[in-house]
Amino acid sequence: MIRVRYVLIATFLVLNTSQTARAGDDQFNVSFSSMLGGASAFAAAFINYGALQACASDPSCGMPDDPGSGFEVGAGSCCDNNDDCFNDFALHVKRLDKALFTLYKNERYHNLVMRIQGIRMSAMRGAGSLSAAGAAVVARLEINIAKDQKKYFERFNVKTNTNISLLNDFLVELGALIENHCAGSNWYQRNGVPLYMHAKLTFPK
Amino acid sequence: MRHLVGLFVAGLLMLSVQVEAQEPQNVVRDYQNDVEGDPDKPLRLRLKKQSGLEMGRMAVVWGSIGGSDTADSFFLGKTPDKTRLQFDLTALEVGGRVQLIVTAKDGQNVERHEIEVVYGENQKFWLRLKGSLVAQVTGVVPTNYALYVWYPGDTVDALTKNEFEDVVSNQGMEKPRMLRAVKGAGK
C-alpha cells in the first residue's frame, strides 16, 4: 500500500516538475493567444467579406449600399399590427438570414476554388507547352483535374440542395405561423416561393 | 487510499486541461542556441494544423537571440505559386530588439523583406511569396522572441490584391445580413 502511495506521489511530482521545466513558455503564451485572436478575426472577416461579395455580385440579391442589410421581407399588414405575430416573424427571419448567409458564403468559396483551379490550369498549360513530353503529362493531369472537378461539383450540389431544402422548410414553417395569425395571407406563396426559387436558380451548379 | 487516488486523478486532469488550453501544438523551442544562424543551413519549420486556428496551418518558434547567438534560420518550404503568409513577431525582453529577414528565392529572383521589433512590441505583416522561403531572426542584446508563421490557405491566395486588402481592413466586421424583417410589404 505504502509503495503504491509512493509511486503515485512520485508520478505527480515528475509531472509537476516537467511543467515547471517549461515555465519559460508562460511568457510566450500571451503572444500565442494574441496571434490566435488575430487569426480568428481575420477568418471571420474573410468569411463575412466572401458572403458579402457573393451577394453583391448577384443582382437579384438586392444588396443595397448599406452592407448591414440585404433583402427586406415583410409579414403583411395583418401581422404588422400584432406584436406577437411580428415578434415571431422577426425571430424566424433571423433563422432564414442565417440559412441564406450560409448559401452565399458557400457560393463565394466555390468561386474562389474555381479561380484557383483556373490559375493552376493556366500555369500547368504554360509549363506543358515547353516540350512534347510535358504536353502529354499536362493532358493526363487535365483529365484528372476534370474528374476531381466533377466530383467537387457533385458534392457542392448535394450540400447546396440540402441547404436550400432547409431554407424552404424554414419558409414553409414561417408561412404556417403567419397563417395562424392572419388566415388567408398566403405569405409562403407571396414571399417564400420567390426566395426559394431565387436560391434554387442561383446556387446549384 | 481511495481519496489519494481520486486526488491524484483530479490533479492529473487539471494539469492536462491546463496544458491543452495554453500550449500550441507545433512549437520549436530554441531557448539554448540550438538553431543554426546560417541561412544556407536553416532548420525546417513545418506548418501544421493547430487547435483554435480556424483556417490553414501555422508554425511557432519560441526562442532566444542575442549575445553569442546572433541568428536563427528557418526553412519554410517551397511554394509553386504566390502564397500569402502572415508573419507575427514579438520581442519579449527589456532592451531587446529583434529583426526578421524573410527571403523568397524563385530561380534567379530573390525577394527580401526585413522587419524589426523592439521590447514588448508585436508586428504582424503579410507577404505574398513564391519559391524557396527562409526566415532568419537576428538580434544583438539577449532577448526572447516569439515568431508565428501562418498560412491561411489557398482560398486566401485566390483573392485579388484589392479583395485581400478589403478583408484585412475590415477585420472584426460584423456578419452581413442577407434578410431582415420589416413592417409593410418589404422589397
Nutshell version of this structure?
The complex is a heterodimer of chains A (205) and B (187). By secondary structure, chain A is mainly α. Chain A has six helices and one strand.
* Major sheet attributes of chain B: 8 strands, mixed
- End-to-end distance of chain A: 70 Å
Radius of gyration of chain A: 27 Å
Tell me the total number of β-strands of chain A.
1
Oligomer: heterodimer
Q: Indicate the proportion of strand residues of chain A.
A: under 5%
Order of helices and strands of chain A: HHEHHHH
Count of separate DSSP helical elements of chain B: 3
Any overview of this molecule?
The complex is a heterodimer of chains A (205) and B (187). By secondary structure, chain A is mainly alpha-helical. Chain A has one domain (31-60, 76-202). Chain A is built from 6 helices and 1 strand; from the N terminus they run ααβαααα. Chain A is flat. Chain A starts with a helix and ends with a helix. By secondary structure, chain B is α+β, with helices and mostly antiparallel strands. In chain B, strands 1, 2, 3, 4, 5, 6, 7 and 8 form an 8-stranded mixed beta sheet that branches. Chain B is globular, with a radius of gyration of 21 Å. Helices cover 18% and strands 47% of the residues of chain B. Classes of the chains: A mainly alpha (205), B alpha+beta (187). At the A-B interface, α1, α2, β1 and α4 of A face α1, β3, β4, β8 and α2 of B.
